[in-house]
Amino acid sequence: MAKYLLLKHYRGAPAAVNDVPMAQWKPEEITAHVQYMRDFATRLEGTGEFVDSQALSDEGTFVRYDGEGRPPVTDGPFAETKDLIAGWMVIDVDSYERALELAGELSAAPGAGGEPIHEWLELRPFLTEHPTVTE
Amino acid sequence: MNEALLRSLTPSVLGVLVRRGADFAAAEDAVQDALVEAVRVWPEDPPRDAKGWLVTVAWRKFLDATRSDAARRRREDLVEEEPASGPAAAVDDTLRLYFLCAHPSLTASSAVALTLRAVGGLTTRQIAEAYLVPEATMAQRISRAKRTVSGVRFDRPGDVATVLRVLYLVFNEGYSGDVDLAAEAIRLTRQLAASIDHPEVSGLLALMLIHHARRAARTAPDGSLVPLAEQDRGRWDTESIAEGIEILQAALARDRLGEFQAQAAIAALHADAQSAGETDWVQIVEWYDELTRLTDNPVVRLNRAVAVGEADGPRAGLVALAALDDKLPRHTAVAAYLHERDGDLETAALLYAEAARKASNLAERDHLTRQAARLNARRGAQDVSRK
Predict the structure, then answer these.
(1) How many of the other CB atoms lie within 10 Å of CB of B328?
(2) Under an 8 A CB cutoff, do B361 and A3 touch?
(3) Domain covering A2-125 assigned CATH 2.40.50.1070 in the classification
(4) Domain extents for chain A?
């Protein structure tokens, strides 16, 4: 029982095999892609492995503290070179092998030409909250 | 109303329904419904016979849920041959439920979830909160687990080792949400020990009691880890330790040693020492040797290396460690500790930092980072004083 984060990137991951910007897909290919993602999440709910899924806007800004009584400083928009997260899914699975298997399936979501994107996903284990009780 | 009593009756009530011929999945749902109703009704109108009340209500819920003609015909037959339930049957029912919920066809997470619900009487929401997943996900996990074991015959005992593994997993999960899983694991293991006479069940119960006794001392008020050697032993729960040791001694006297008895023996030796310096490390190494013979688990060998480092000095510990795969979890943390004990602070600081990067647990990572920082600060101070 371990939680993993599957991270999708707008930028910053190695290039996918079927690397065509979404704006150049056919409308029905986009529909098929969105349906695949939805079905994937539904299936994981069914297997009792789904925890969370969110998509992120590709806009954003850096923010930092700037000292007592001063408003936070912002720095944006992001430079073209910045690694940019597109969204994530959190799963709770029995093994690392199972996490790999699911990440592989998610990466097979259809893209241009109805072919799998082979998108590179980042797979990251959660640090568990509580230490094991036995020392 | 006594929730502990209510939950302790869960497995035997479920057992009665299953013996009357209800299929496991439907019976389990019916018992959950009956528990909910008990929580609602009992405070105003407490029953004289709590178990009888639960059986009656759960059976009615089961009948309500089974509406088709075929099912009605079948259940009319069932009511005819309804067996009487005596105290002996209740014990057997409980035991069979443990085996069913830990069935080898289930994954570890499914077995844990099903055990907590069907044997522990926890609600799906409580289990979901304890494991930090959405309630819908946990509901699916439980219903799939029920489907998986639905074809399993209820009348055969299984392997007690599978049940113990599931209970040990629950115990090790710690606690979040409003359910204390470690305490729940102890309750379920105690209940199991009352149903079956087996030295390893006693061994696991003893192990849990002794570990649980140290819980208050194991974390500082800010949540950071306190290693065994630095714990305030005055805060250990001596009553729980005494109970664990008594159970362990009775188990060991039967001369059927197993993994959990050996682990409990090691925990007991730690608990026996008035201070960390008084720990009988030589005997602990001997128990680790015993444990290696029983399980040949690489994690046991790693812990043995730590014990060797205490019994025969850090150099001996490092030699023992060198024989092990350095990919083992916590291998680097153990190496850091032994190098520190050996006086090589520079290597130790580097290894602590590396171990922190490899840690799979937040509290452990923070602890290891602090160890690295402590040694670096000390070395920095030494450099300054030398100038």
Answers:
(1) 14
(2) no
(3) no
(4) 2-125
The rounded distance, in Å, linking the Cα atoms of B271 and B231 is: 11
The per-residue pLDDT for range A71-122, each reduced to its tens digit, is 999 998 898 888 999 999 999 999 999 999 999 999 999 999 999 999 999 9
Confidence band, pLDDT 50/70/90 cuts, at residue B179: confident
Tell me how far apart the alpha carbons of residues B332 and B137 are, in angstroms, rounded to a whole number.
Answer: 36
DSSP secondary structure, B139-165, as one string? HHHHHHHHHHHTTS-TTS---HHHHHH
Compute the distance between CA of residue B339 and CA of residue B337 in angstroms, rounded to an integer: 6
Sign of CA dihedral A127, A132, B2, B3: positive
CA distance B342 to B313: 8
Burial readout B276-312 (b: 16 or more C-beta within 10 A, e: otherwise): eeebebeebbbbbebbbebeeeeebbbbbbbbbbbbe
Task: Using the predicted structure, report yes or no on whether residue B176 has a pLDDT greater than 90.
Answer: no
SS3 B301: helix
User: Considering CB atoms only, which of B134, B140, B218 is closest to A47?
Assistant: B140
Which pair of tokens denotes residue B89?
């049957």
> Chain B contacts of A3, Cβ < 8 Å?
132
Cβ(A99)–Cβ(A91) below 8 Å: yes
Q: Report yes or no for ipTM above 0.95.
A: no
Q: Which residue in B357, B350, B354 sits closest to B379, CA to CA?
A: B350
Do B174 and A51 lie within an 8 Å CB cutoff? no
What is the least distance, in Å, from the CA of B181 to any CA of chain A?
11
At A128 the three-state DSSP class reads: strand
CB contact (8 A) between residue A134 and residue B133: no
| pLDDT tens string A27-75 | 999 999 999 999 999 999 999 999 999 999 988 999 999 999 999 999 9
